[in-house]
Each structure stands twice: as structure tokens, then as C-alpha cells.
Amino acid sequence: MKKWYDNAVIYQIYPKSFQDSNQDGVGDLQGIIKRLPYLKKLGVNTLWLNPIYVSPQVDNGYDVANYYAIDPQMGSMADFEALLKEAHKFDMHLLMDFVLNHTSDQHPWFQDAIKSKDSIYRDYYIFAGENGKRPNNWASFFGGSVWEKDPLNTGEYYFHLFDKHMPDLNWKNPEVRHAMLDIARFWLDKGVDGLRIDAFIHVAKADLYQNFPGNIDPVVAEPFYANRPQVLEWMNEFSHTLKAEYPDVYLLGEASSADVTLANDYLDPNGAALDSVITFRYFTEDLSKLNPNFSDQYQPRDLDFEAFKQNQVVWQQTVDKPNLYLNNHDLPRIATRFAKNDNQAKMYALLMHLQKGTSVIYYGEELGLRNINIPEYEGDESVDRFVKEATEAGLTKDEAMDMVNQMHRLASRGPMLWDDSPYGGFSNVEPWIKGINEQNVSAQDQEDDPNSFLNFYRKLISLKQTELFAKGAYRMLNIPGKTYVYERHLDDQSAIVALNFDHHSIEIDTDKTDVLMVVGDYELHDGKLLLEPDSGIVLK
Ligand code: GLC
Questions:
Q1: pTM for this structure?
Q2: Segments of the chain with pLDDT less than 70
């Protein structure tokens, strides 16, 4: 059956950093409304907003204290309704971030749960252990143990996979599952078009009284809290219930550690029954050149290009509609991470987004934005630990911080650059995030420049929505070296996307003559395409 999201091109907005309308340094919903014409002109047709619910902002909104209201820093419910209405007027759909694995410790459920062991909300969370002894040695993704002492001093602990201020919900409890459906209904009843489902792969946990093998304590124990079989059962119930009531809802799941097999289970109507999944397993990295004398966590690394190609081709050939992205709020920006120059940043865009699947464009990607430099990562334990280790291994503090700024997810959340005013037109006052963008670019400057990133992305997005690129089959051509060349074909139409990341020129035989997009330098005659280094082309 045809669905509105068959042709979705999604634009991810990090609301805190997009546009501040009331000059408090934090982006807000009125700011997004103001920029809808820009987004329309860009050509995207779906917006995904990172969390905008009431939150103490321990994890920038992923710690939700009230799912039924907008965080006052970002606006009001009236602002939200206005945004939704305006977006729909522009024929754009809106996706809410949906955080169902955990809440904030400030959420009334948790506050009640830690008042008494008899609280009816006690079983909404995962309490375990006794006499001050943790049930197991599992580590939290944010460092330290997953267990935090019950503030009620019962000798028990509560489970948190992320920050200790983000207790995990107990999905074994059917009331939790129902409560989450009710929250989803609240937003879908307002007219929201879909949900980006946060960290859903973690809702099921193994037997809590089982240590994970390892010499360190606590130890990251992913097999015990990621992609457990019950995830399928609970998400199946969740997705089918919503789809029965809201047949057009689009469910986009974040499945960070999913390989193709798991992704297909999550997409299978008999599995998690989602419409699309975002994996973090796309970008295979070359770890061979890292310094072994200190933690690799923030050491910049190259893409392992060969492995990346193999990986991409497997996703393209195995998953019906892969999710295509280069950046998001949890990763460094591609222009800092892997692209060596502007040409390459554009080439990665052609590489990724013209493949088969649903594109997600991270705000600012269309301007070629790079990471910001954050002078201090206040209170971030993992950064402190890294800098300590790196300086002990002989690096200067500046060198270590430079690595952090290339690799840390916070550095990808800098303010959008709209114009040349002091804070880039994002705000008149200092932005909430203390970082400096050293690039001299803005949407305004790029508006009329035919060679700008912005106009390149406009062209790319409109090409993406043509039949051939929206529906065509995909076939990778095996051209040796650091190249990426593929065909799309549909009935009697076909096109090739050819990209040369190598140091020498490459030659490809082709019968195509119609040039749709170009980066860098090429020659095309007598059925031969010569592509210079750092150059790419789309031919039909
Ligand atoms: C997801 C989000 C990430 C957040 C985490 C906990 O991975 O993308 O930003 O920190 O979930 O909610």
C-alpha cells in the first residue's frame, strides 16, 4: 500500500541549536516556525525533532520529566500546535522523538517510586539487589555501574543504562507498556505523523542476577541489555497497537547496534513491525593507526573504506529501505569526521543519499557544517579521563582537547549558522552550548551561490525524489581503489553515481551522457569517464 513516507526526506532538527526566537540562547519552537520556508525551499518533507518535553536537561531532553508538556525553554503547547499546523500547511510531516526506555529521575513516577516500597510506581522501574549489594557487574553506557543506590535506603538499587538521573523503565510491567502507548496516542491525536523511537533495543534485560564475564568491574554487558528477544515481542505489541489506531503513523526506530539481520527483524511485521531503523554500524572505522598508550574513545580515525563499501552493499542488498544518514546528534559531523575537504563532504552526500532508502539530513549538513570547538567539557567524566590519559602519554592538553572536539557528540550540536551576525543569526545572545564554529559560512551567504553546499543539497534532494532515485534498484560497481560507484535502475531508466576518493584519477566505461550533478573535475567522451581525485559525478 502506498504511504506518505515512501518518499520521505527527513530533516533532523536539534531544537536547542536551530533558532532562538526569544533571545535566551536556547533554540525554540517559534524559531523552527520561522525557518519553515527555508526548509521548504531545501526540499525536505519531514521533520524529526529531538526531544522537546519537560526535562531537567541532564541528557539534553532524553531525560523526560513530563511527556505531556513542552519544556518551557522551547516554548508552550500552543507553540507546538502552531508548529504542527504550519508544518502541515507546508506539506511537511512531523516526527516526535519518543523516549520509552527510561525517564528522568524527576518524573513523578520515579519520585513516587522512591517514596515507599509500596508505591504503585515502584514496579515501573527496575529495583534489585539487597543489603547494599549490587545484583551484577554490568556497566552503564555513560560510565560506572548501571546500578544506583535506592534513595529510600532500602539496600536496593535501581537500574540505569544511561545517566544515573535516567532510571530505566520496567517493560516487563504491562502498565508501563500501556502508559507508553497512552503517551504516543496523546501526540498522535494532536496530529503528529510519526515517532523516532529512542533506544528501543534496550527495553529488555537478561536475568539481573548474572554477572557478565570480564576482568573489569563494572563491564559493558551489551548482550545482557541490547537486542534481547523480548524486544521483538514488546515492540510488536507497541507498533501493531499504534498502527491499528493510526494507520498512517511512521515508526522510525533507533537500533544503534543492529546489523542487517537484526534490522530485518525490527522491520518484519512479525518482529518489531517498525517502518525504518537507524543503525550506527554503517561507518566501519580503521583503528589500526590509533595510539595504544591511551584510550581510543576520542582518538580520531579514518573510515575503513573497503569495509565500509562492503558493509553498504550488504545493507543495500539485504534491507528493503535502509535509513541513509551521515550525521546525527550522537556522532561527530561527517565534514569533521571523515571528509578531508569540502569536495569530499559533498561526495559523501552523493554516496549516501542517492542510494536506495530514506534519507535523514542533520541540520547544518546542507551547509557543510563541521564540529564546533568546545573549550571545556564541564563535568564530563569520560572527557576528563581521556585528557588525563592522553597527557600522561605525552600529548598536550590542547592536543587532547582537539581530539575530543573532533570526536565528541556534543561538538556536532553547535548552533545553526543563518547569517553573518555575531551568533550566526541563531540568537542575539550567547548560545547555550559554549563552542566556537571556526567556519565562515552561513545559509544567507550560500543562498545565491550556485556552487554552495546549500544549492548542492537542494539539487540532491530534488533528484532523490525522482522516480529513479526514489524507487530504483541498486547495484554497486566494483571499481578498485578508494572509489564508490553504483547504479540505480528502474524499468528503462538508469543512472550512475561515481565517486573518486583516491589520490589518482580513475577511468570508467559508461554509455551515459547526461550530467546531473558534479563535484570537482571530470572528462567524458567516447564512452569513457575520467574522474579526477576528490571528484564525483551523477550521470544518466
Ligand atoms: C539515544 C539518543 C542519545 C541519548 C540516549 C539516551 O541513543 O540518541 O542522544 O543519549 O538515547 O536516551
A1: 0.98
A2: none
DSSP 8-state class, residue 202 = G
How many residues make up the chain in this entry?
540
Q: Mind telling me the catalytic residues?
A: 198, 254
CA atoms within 13 A on the CB side of 478: 1
Q: Which of 55, 104, 162 to mutate to test the pocket of ligand 1 (most atoms within 8 A of CB)?
A: 162
So what's the pLDDT on residue 379?
83
Pocket-testing residue among 14, 49, 59, 325, ligand 1, by greatest number of atoms within 8 A of Cβ: 59
CA dist 505 and 340 (Å) reads 17
198 lines ligand 1 (CB under 6 A): yes
Q: Please answer whether residues 52 and 15 qualify as being in contact, where contact means their C-beta atoms are separated by less than 8 angstroms.
A: yes
Quote the radius of gyration of the chain (alpha carbons, Å): 24
The rounded Å distance from CA 417 to ligand 1 centre is 24
**Residue 426 near residue 413, CB atoms below 8 Å:** no
For residue 451, what are the CA distances in angstroms to 186, 348, 491, 534? 44, 16, 32, 16
Query: Measured from the CA of 409, which atom of ligand 1 is nearest?
Result: 9
pLDDT digits (tens, 9 = 90+) for 451-465: 999 999 999 999 999
Q: Is 53 in the pocket of ligand 1 (CB under 6 A)?
A: no
Please tell me the residue having the least CA distance from ligand 1 atom 3: 330
